[in-house]
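Discrete fold record:
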Amino acid sequence: MTDKALVLFSGGQDSTVCLAWALDRFETVESVSFDYDQRHKVELEIRQRVLERIEDLKPQWQGRLGTDHPVRLAELAQISDTALTRDQEIEMAANGLPTTFVPGRNIVFFTYAAAIAYRRGITTLVGGMCETDYSGYPDCRAKTINSMAETLSLGMDRPYAIETPLMYLDKAATWELADQIGGKALVDLIIEDTHTCYLGDRTKKHAWGYGCGECPACQLRQKGFEKWQAGAN
């Protein structure tokens, strides 16, 4: 087992599965979050519940969860004009990308995460990026992530690795991975205490969790859950 990892942990389904994945593999797992005035800012509150509860799901995870690093990135919202940082409609833009795409977001996230990791003596970063069931974001593709790892390694003169355990999984397979890692307890935690809805809606409870049920993030999570459930029965 390698020593430490830093997980980009937003409090959503994908990053929670990645956090559990890391707890299974590393002796110490630290986490980082980013506040960029996102519309679904409630995720920053919700993630605290997950951090408080996740270690108790498996005996071997006890004591492995390390320091959490909240980072404020208000400037990212100021220079962005997207449906995640403005009160505007979620739709497809003329460039073929959804208006929820925040240009440079993951590149900025990994740069800040690597800076934290440098100070903490960590060389493995973990993110929930996926190019199978995703919205077409170019900064979620494996090619981008691999290039980012090389750039960080060169720029900081340290061999960084970026692990993306969900990269080639659809949402049904992500639910299945959660079940494989942590069983019903982890699945229940994801349903009850994670947040994916782009609109930040925590008023509506569904079989797959909380959300408006209409935005692309909710629809993707719902379809994945239903497909996984159908395959499990």
In short: The helical segments are 13-23, 42-53, 74-79, 105-120, 142-156, 171-193, 216-232. The mean pLDDT is 87. The radius of gyration is 17 Å. The longest strand covers residues 28-35.
